């Protein structure tokens, strides 16, 4: 079964942005929307279904992971809140995002709410039109440009949207966008 969305119903933008920040934002937005599309129409068990053992990867785990990634890079690094605890991470379990991704409706609702919340906060920060060349210091002491972080975010989503493609196909045979 193919999962194609007619162009007029596709929430992903198809504009031709002109400046660097607009291009980066469009790619980031489209990958975020793609991950959401891969999760649409699935029940709690399907969202939490693991891939091939011993992997703990699931679509729900990917949503939780990307909430964590958004929070880490935008809130903790770019907005300078490195002292706040990480989402879905503990010193004892660095993979809480995947390990605790269960089919419990409360867990699912929380995961999607946190992911959307982190995206909204990141987008609000990006609305300030930061200079991509600005260099910041991460909480762990590395100097990195805003551009590098934004490209890393695209890289994270691209990698995990590929995982989401395969996970979704294993769940119900759907492929496509």
Write structural notes for this entry.
With 177 residues, this protein is mostly helical. It has a domain at 53-172: Up-down Bundle (Four Helix Bundle (Hemerythrin (Met), subunit A)). It has 6 helices and 2 strands; from the N terminus they run H-H-H-H-H-E-E-H. Helix 3 runs parallel beside helix 5 (105-126). The model has no long low-confidence stretch (mean pLDDT 92). The chain has a two-stranded antiparallel ribbon. It has helices at residues 20-39, 44-48, 59-78, 96-99, 105-126, 146-172, and strands at residues 135-137, 143-145. A hairpin with a 5-residue loop joins strand 1 and strand 2.
**Uncertain spans:** none
CATH architecture of the domain at 53-172: Up-down Bundle
The proportion of residues forming helix, as a percent range, comes to: 55-70%
Strand order of the largest sheet: 1-2
Total number of helices: 6
Mean pLDDT: 92
Given the C-alpha coordinates, what overall shape results? globular
* Total number of beta strands: 2
**CATH classification class of the domain at 53-172:** Mainly Alpha
Q: Give the CATH topology of the domain at 53-172.
A: Four Helix Bundle (Hemerythrin (Met), subunit A)
Corresponding CATH superfamily of the domain at 53-172: dinb family like domain
Structural Rg:
17 Å
Class by SSE composition: mainly alpha
Main pleated sheet: 2 strands, antiparallel
**Beta fraction:** under 5%
SSE order: HHHHHEEH
How far apart are the termini? Answer: 12 Å
Organism: Paractinoplanes abujensis
Pfam families: MST (PF04978)
InterPro entries: DinB/YfiT-like, MST-like
Protein name: Putative damage-inducible protein DinB
